[in-house]
Please model this.
Amino acid sequence: MSLKDLNVSGKKVLVRVDFNVPLDADKKVTDDTRISKAAPTIIYLLEQGAAVILMSHLGRPQKKKLEDGSVDKAANTLAPVIPVLQDYVGCQVQFVEDTIGEEAQAAVAALEPGQILLLENTRFYSGEEKGDEDLAKAMAALGDLYVNDAFGAAHREHASTATVARFFDPTQRAFGLLIEAELAGAEQLLNNPAHPVTAIVGGAKVSDKILLLEKLLDFADNIIIGGAMAYTFSLAQGGKVGKSLVERDKTDKALDLLKKAEANGTKIYLPVDTTVGKDFSNETPREIVPAGEIGDEWEGLDIGPESVKIFSAVIAESKSILWNGPMGVFEMKNFAIGTNAIANAVAKATQENGAYSLIGGGDSVSAINQAGLADKVSFVSTGGGAMLELLEGKVLPGIAAIRG
Ligand code: AMP
Model:
């Protein structure tokens, strides 16, 4: 059911958002993208006369407990989100230091249309990550309607993302505007994309992206491979990779993929040159060497300029582009050159050739933001793992639970 089809006026709407934002040592939000992306649904609900009850997780409180076995509430409270959220929605946000229970029930009972209540971190309850029925039932009792807008957590079968939805009739639950947009973005690529389709896949490990790469063989015309992943392919082809990050046990998978791509007519572009460093630091001496010729004392940290040229030309010819994973260690300025060049090529193809471009995956999102080009591409996904699984063709529990 679409959010706009729900009659929310005068109702208490329980909304699962993704406020799992990074915080600094002073508990200040350092990247508020997720809060900003949740705001349109919240504002829409307020404008329609709903009372909005927000729930989210933050961090991993069950993983790092205090000595007495309890969760560290001070370290993982959602309270730091409140001032940022208030700025985005333009009104006061009430807060209750529990997710369920009497205090939460009383705060919900007192909530008026046009008001917002933020519940405390769902992961303070151990049942959250287990998808616990009783916890989900207690959450569900707080709202007349349920809206899931937490795309970043949609691949988790948790109490607040999946189980809770089952306590609402299909006519009482819907996706929020962010999830609707994320699904539309992925569908645009997966169903009937304009060709040629080019996927740019980078990042640290082949093992994290192998399912995506296999799925891409179904619909991509070109697959560009960069990042440390490329060294596993290079090694598989008999290249020398020096001290580069590489998965020696994944060379068979890499060769298998190259073989499947050839049989399938999908073109795979691997780097032809590599920017190498003596060690893993920004200031380390660096050189450009042909791919597969990395000396024993060196490690690959970025794609080289020839690769940038070849990759950019492929991108310029593309009508649909998916980018997941950086071309190098873009967190270090001297090794961000390849990633920034690819960000520019994607933005240019979007702006000048009308290509549809989707940036999916946490680190490529940081890279496009770092390059200042987020508003020059078609869609920037908020969900790294969730978008990856969606593109791999998996059914996400948070999506399935709403669809029923
Ligand atoms: P992923 O989460 O798999 O997309 O990987 C992103 C991470 O891969 C980033 O933190 C990059 O710094 C890292 N990465 C990309 N290229 C390299 C490389 N050549 N060597 C080491 N790490 C890399």
Summary: The mean pLDDT is 96. The two ends are 10 Å apart (CA to CA).
